[in-house]
């Protein structure tokens, strides 16, 4: 029986970064950086128009007015504030993006060298309209084509917006969480159980940078098997929209207006290396297009070796909340009839912002 190396599973789940993939445009967005001393800045706040309440942890996209191409994205803080600096002089627009709501494009702002312009995003939220019928799709599409598929484009944007908000949060904030009930048991002739009641973990901005480098690789490896056991890298939601992951996986989408919709990521080739694991995850969204879980299959030599799911829910922070993993369930798939195998479960909670000592 293969012995799992458990700490690698928990650590990799905690440290889920991604490459700079924007919610509306897969791939790394172009920079609009000005030479030192020649740039301007744009600062603003996002609030509800009706009440003035700040909109925390929402994605703000910065666009060129001419052509509308993406420049950068930012995450609003607890008070709704956001900012972009070192901008090349010119005209820009900002677009507010929140899961479950239609994007809101604001008026143009001209940025001048050496000055900071101010803007206020006064949001009048409009819920996305769900389709009236199911939209099944059996073709595996390149990520770059998803926005050109009318039936699936909105579904893709919703999942990518949630991933982008998490990516920006991971890069900006240090936070802690607690791993609970880390338990694994072997089923079969022998029964072995190992458990850890509570284990605190800390995520830092430097950790997010490390994962972005991994997620940008065009040959991502998501685990390995050796004589001493195996290690897993369990992808968090932002990693699934990293440039490397999207380059090595295609997407099968299915939309259900009355139930769960799915974005299934599949390896695009048969690339295999002995002892190396690949991953084929599926993002499952509920009827409001909110990420409910990510179903996981780890492949060894083209066959399922480990399967499971990562459950998601809202974790509250001062000023707002974001979707975070709350539970991980994994199970080894027996290769031989009657062969013992292991199952395990970990819960993640008590997410809290911590002082950032890395800056």
What labels describe this entry?
359 residues, mainly beta, 10-stranded antiparallel β-sheet, 4 helices, 20 strands, globular, disordered N terminus
Walk me through the topology.
Blueprint: H1 6-14, E1 40-48, E2 59-64, E3 70-75, E4 81-87, E5 90-97, E6 104-105, E7 109-111, E8 116-123, H2 150-172, E9 174-187, E10 193-203, H3 205-215, E11 223-226, E12 229-232, H4 243-248, E13 249-254, E14 261-267, E15 277-279, E16 282-285, E17 291-300, E18 303-317, E19 320-332, E20 341-354
Parallel strand pairs: 1-8
Antiparallel strand pairs: 1-4, 2-3, 2-5, 5-6, 5-7, 9-10, 9-20, 11-12, 13-14, 14-16, 15-17, 16-17, 17-18, 18-19, 19-20
Helix pairs in contact: 2-3
Q: In words, what does this structure look like?
A:
The chain has helices spanning 6-14, 150-172, 205-215, 243-248, and strands spanning 40-48, 59-64, 70-75, 81-87, 90-97, 104-105, 109-111, 116-123, 174-187, 193-203, 223-226, 229-232, 249-254, 261-267, 277-279, 282-285, 291-300, 303-317, 320-332, 341-354. The chain is built from 4 helices and 20 strands. 14% of the residues lie in helices and 43% in strands. With 359 residues, the protein is mainly beta. The strands form 4 sheets. Strands 9, 10, 13, 14, 15, 16, 17, 18, 19 and 20 form a 10-stranded antiparallel beta sheet that branches. It has a domain at 6-15 and 168-354.
Share of residues in strands: 35-45%
> What portion of residues is helical?
10-25%
Q: Main sheet, how many strands, which sense, barrel?
A: 10 strands, antiparallel
Shape annotation = globular
| End-to-end Cα distance | 44 Å
Order of helices and strands: HEEEEEEEEHEEHEEHEEEEEEEE
Poorly predicted regions: 3-31
């Amino acid at each position: 029986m293969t012995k799992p190396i458990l700490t690698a599973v928990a650590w990799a789940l905690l440290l889920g970064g991604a490459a700079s993939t924007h919610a509306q445009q897969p791939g790394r967005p172009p920079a609009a950086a000005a030479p030192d001393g020649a740039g301007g800045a744009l600062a603003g706040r996002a609030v509800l128009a009706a009440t003035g309440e700040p909109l925390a942890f929402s994605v703000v996209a910065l666009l060129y007015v001419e052509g509308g191409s993406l420049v950068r994205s930012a995450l609003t803080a607890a008070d709704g504030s956001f900012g972009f600096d070192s901008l090349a002089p010119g005209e820009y627009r900002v677009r507010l993006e929140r899961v479950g709501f239609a994007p809101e494009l604001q008026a143009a702002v001209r940025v001048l060298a050496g000055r900071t312009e101010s803007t206020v995003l006064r949001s009048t939220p409009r819920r996305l309209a769900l389709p009236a019928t199911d939209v099944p799709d059996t073709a595996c599409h390149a990520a770059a084509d998803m926005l050109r598929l009318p039936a699936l484009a909105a579904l893709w944007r919703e999942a990518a917006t949630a991933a982008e908000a998490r990516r920006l949060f991971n890069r900006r904030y240090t936070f802690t969480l607690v791993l609970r009930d880390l338990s694994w048991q072997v089923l079969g002739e022998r029964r072995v159980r190992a458990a850890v009641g509570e284990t605190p973990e800390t995520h830092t901005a430097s950790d997010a940078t490390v994962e972005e480098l991994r997620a940008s690789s065009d040959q991502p490896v998501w685990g390995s098997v050796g004589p001493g056991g195996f290690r897993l890298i369990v992808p968090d939601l932002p990693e699934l929209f990293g440039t490397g992951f999207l380059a090595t996986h295609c997407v099968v989408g299915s939309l259900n207006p009355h139930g769960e919709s799915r974005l299934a990521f599949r390896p695009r080739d048969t690339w295999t290396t002995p002892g190396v694991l690949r991953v084929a995850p599926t993002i499952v969204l509920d009827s409001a297009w909110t990420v409910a879980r990510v179903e996981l299959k780890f492949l060894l030599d083209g066959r399922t070796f480990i399967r499971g799911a990562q459950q998601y829910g809202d974790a509250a922070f001062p000023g707002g909340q974001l979707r975070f993993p709350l539970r991980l369930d994994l199970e080894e798939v027996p290769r031989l009839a009657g062969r013992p195998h292991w199952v395990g479960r970990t819960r993640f909670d008590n997410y809290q912002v911590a002082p950032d000592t890395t800056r």
